[in-house]
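$ run holo --ligand "flavin mononucleotide" --emit tokens
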Amino acid sequence: MDLNRRCFLKYAASGMIAAGALPAIGCSGLRRKDLTGLLEQENYVHGLTKTELDILYMASLAPSGHNAQPWTVKIVSPEKWIIGSDKTCWLPAADSDNFNCLLSIGAFIENLVIAAGSNGYKADVQITAKDPFDTEIAIIHFSRQRRNGELVKRIKNRRMTKIPYRKKEILAKDIEYLTHHSPEHICYFPKGSPQSTYIEEGTLECNRIQDARQDVLEETAKWIRWSDEDAKKYRDGLTPEAMSIHGVTGWVARHFFTRESLFNKMNREMYLDMVEELLENHGGWIVFTGKDSSVSSMIDSGRRFERLWLKARAKNIAIQPFSQLLEEAPGATVGIKGIEDDVHFIMRVGYIDSYPDPVSLRKPVSWFVEA
Ligand SMILES: Cc1cc2nc3c(=O)[nH]c(=O)nc-3n(C[C@H](O)[C@H](O)[C@H](O)COP(=O)(O)O)c2cc1C
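-- output --
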């Protein structure tokens, strides 16, 4: 039985779904494409050209933990931008060392460099932060170059999805395609390998640990946008659509769930059931490593995984990061056989039959740019 159906039956049994409500069910929740027109108006920032706005919007399509979008940009001049870290988007309970924040900003920088290249600009990145909690992270210097537009088209189509993955091992030629930009920092472990089993067991255990942590649950609740109204108001966080909660279950979630719903015992059990199912069904794990965990190493890893993620859709390979092992037991990753460097990021991967369109929302450029 699929998760959505099992979830629906639990709700039906608990009497939350009134029979009279059923005919109204069917439409989906707020998705990125529903806000395209609005975003075009809101993306305007006085003093910036259309090209600059486009580069900033493309950068903002980067993934981030809880879709918190922890980046800021200060436009010092057309040739010099400062990338910053927004304290209000940090996740101190789950991401206590702020590494996920740095990884997300790394992904943002990678998109920015690619989008600038496609518009005829070379973007040189100078990392200035020394501490993960610094609020100024990098300076970008722009100069002219020939247009280079290969990867940019993929930025708009990249997404995280949890729809069922096939258990098939990822083909060697596909791994080569995904990792050839940085093979020394990226490892693939197929489902069934000792490393894969180790990551699955550790990830499940760490999900259980986080599930029992009130501070983590409260932090997560803060970033879930159950209703369409909240999603439209904040344009960040996790919507039911982005969490792959569709159909009847999505409708129930959008109309009945509140901040407190996350603390409900039945929902907690359902969440852990879902995690177990995700850990059982996939084609393996991709692990990103670095020689240390300095700010610049974490930013580099964010850039590397974003580049890989942009390539994955062309091969029908779905991606879901799983951060809990690194958040709760970073030392445990030394147990992943064959890895000597620091582990920075772990992704569940698998082939899917058809790729859904991106749905997660983004803040308008004017909300994170200071010109
Ligand atoms: C540093 C980082 C950590 C993440 N950790 C998780 C995670 O533990 N579980 C998960 O389901 N998704 C995780 N994600 C995926 C984000 O939730 C997702 O990228 C975000 O909601 C935006 O959606 P999109 O990637 O479809 O644009 C992570 C993403 C990043 C960049």
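-- notes --
The beta strands are 71-77, 80-85, 121-127, 136-144, 186-190, 284-290, 317-321, 342-351, 369-370.
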